[in-house]
Amino acid sequence: MSKSHDQRALAKRRDTANQPETRGIDLVPEADRHGRARDLFAVWAAPNISVLNFTIGATLTLVLGLEIWQAIVIIVAAQILWVLPGVVAISGPAAGTSGSVIQRAIYGIRGNRFVIAIYGWAISGVFLALNWVASSFMGAELLVRWGFPDHTAALLIVSVVVASVTVLVAVYGHGMILRSYGVVTVSLLVIFLVVTGYIAPSIDWAYRQPEPVAGAALWASASIGFAILASTPLSYSNSADLARYMPRNTEPRSIIAATALGGALPSLVFITVGALLGTVISSAEMTEGIEYVLFDMLPAWLGPVFVLGVIVNTVALNAMTTYTASMALQSIGVPIRRVPSAIVIGALGTVFTVVLVLSTSLIGAVNLMLQFLIVISAPTIAVYVTDIVLRRNRYQGDDLFDERRGSTFWYRGGYGWAGLSAVLAGGCAAALFISTDVWTGPLARAIGVIDLSAPIGMTVAIAVYVAATHRSRRAGEWGKAG
Fold it and tell me: Helix crossing, 68-79 with 215-234: angle to 10°?
């Protein structure tokens, strides 16, 4: 009977697409490792074939006043940052667990709980809402055009339905994501390319700004645009979670390439399309919502198909976020299994979504939230990547789960002060150099409202972390894991 019970328990923990994934942050044994690095391309491409790319791209030309070529230069530069989630991803197979656990090596057993509670869980709820807002606005617009009488009720209905499907995918977990996102990527790519084909004839390819920005104003616009674009790759410090099932000997370069290209290529293409779209719409239309503009530019049959694509993309992106956030909740010590944790995260994101759809426009929500996320995301991912480089990606899973006093990652009182001080310093530096409609840092204001939050936040965090760990690394007292 005991043997039968063990077999049933093992079957429940298998990483398959046809049953909920019960494994949380616990180690993935070598016998359960599977998958190829190239599988990660679709995992990251599906969430980034997004209508938000159109919105962000249009912001560059329409709101920030950049010429088309200037916008494209900034778009290309920002996509290079996708290398960082690629590097973070390689720590998953090395440790065999979630990134929210791996970061105990940076912040200590106790310190990591505070970092993950803020970034890996609470911020995830906000990020969920940010993406659900896009599909809520477009889905509600479609329902109203089909005769639904109440726009507010339509917003709420779409938000709840999309959130429910998202949580269901997150409950089925890694196996479902790995096996379905290839089909999702191809389907979304076809839909968005057809939409682009219908948009293309309307684009003014010879467009020039009526009042070109120059000098300090140009640098301010370019830097703010870069900050908005950079916030997406910088926010994906959860990439290790999607790679942790891969065999330990999977080639790191292949993992980095598949992750980075999966995120960068669709973003590059469709943000550029958005920048071009910004040449033919007005500021008033943009403020009202790009979803209304797109509906009017597309034939009647394509509008519903496009909305379906937007909803599928939203589910793909937020299912991934919900999935990883469910493990973050476990890693901070909450006694909850992964499936109930995913439901809690989904409920939190739904509440935030309802607040946003009833109080703001899509473009206002997107740009403001993306910029402010940099204050946390830029130093966090910078320190994570630095730790991987300094340790040469040598993480020992057993040490990461040893929470006893005096363990490898107990550090001083359970806190990794080097990592905590680096992230705090980087976040403060980013806040001093951020430039938004709500808050402009004093140093950003001093240099002409130029937003250097991303590069400054990352540079300061890396410098502090390297300096703070220098003595212990030289003495051989740091990074004993592996």
Answer: 40
